[in-house]
Amino acid sequence: xxxxxxIVATATAVPQHSATQEEVKDRLRALLPLPARRLEAAxxxxxxxxxxxxxxxxxxxxxxxxxxxGESSSLYRTHAIALGxxxxxxxxxxxxxxxxxxxxxxxxSCTGIIIPSLDAYLVPELGFRRDVRRLPLTELGxxxxxxxxxxxxxxxxxxxxxxxxxxxxxxxxxxxxxxDLSPANLVSTALFGDGAAAAxxxxxxxxxxxxxxxxxRVLETLxxxxxxxxxxxxxxxxxxGFHSILSKDVPALLKTEIAALAxxxxxxxxxxxxxxxxxxxxxxxxxxxxxVEEELRLTREDTQLSWEILRDFGNQSSxxxxxxxxxxLAERPPAAGARGLLAAFGPGxxxxxxxxxxA
Length: 359
Hints:
- The protein is an alpha+beta fold.
- The chain is 38% helix and 24% strand.
- The strands form three sheets. Strands 5-4-6-7-1-8-13-12-11 form a nine-stranded mixed beta sheet, sandwiched between helices. Strands 2-3 form a two-stranded antiparallel ribbon.
- The two termini are 13 Å apart.
């Protein structure tokens, strides 16, 4: 369609500190109140995540240090604003777009809360217009990055002369709960990492005036929530901060419908699954990626970049799928006219999908 918007540029950023899984395990051996045999059994989870390194806003020596909720919130505010500012500025520069040319600023995060929201801090720091529209998305979890692209698409279909900046910042390291020995918390401790990502999108009219040639056309979007699954994935806020909710049934739930959802999305443009040649998948974890591969009949070559992001950064919640998108555009840009699928999964249980076409 002539009104289809475009993704013009992407960018990513991580905090300065990082640690390997072995370094994290060594640190946890001194922290977790478990007998040696149970401790090693718990730490064996780290060996089956497909994660090798993750980034954090604090050094490994502070990993697991008790923090009051107020201190964690203060750290979140400081680092979310800094990372958000840096990745937003980078994305704008890559797109050849000035901050004052952005008409909608969408910020995404589920690992902390600040009021006013992140976008309010970015407006004066980066020079956005005072009348820029702002849309903070705070409770969509790992699906938030894809959902933000979807809402940007909806806006730009209606305002084709506009531009949108999406900024996702996640700091799950601030939610580490050393005294919570539940399987959900242990898996989260082994899986999640900090990071930020951004994308600049332009409406069909604005794309012709973009500083850089657009990379991908967003053809269609689809959001789907699985009924009766609100307890499968999320956070519970307690006196000491966020505690993870993570059901082992999430991969099985996705298995029931992900293929049908992908077919339904493609069919809106008269396409079939075999017409899709590239796949930008949220690296939610080893089992989740495995199920999506199986149900969509994908090879490891199709999903390699998702596995690489999981290996190098862990699951960065809403930012992860944008990290995969950024690596696709940098290392494996699809040929003009190629169609692909972007997908992320989050609390609800919910799925957000985008049908893409290389410009």
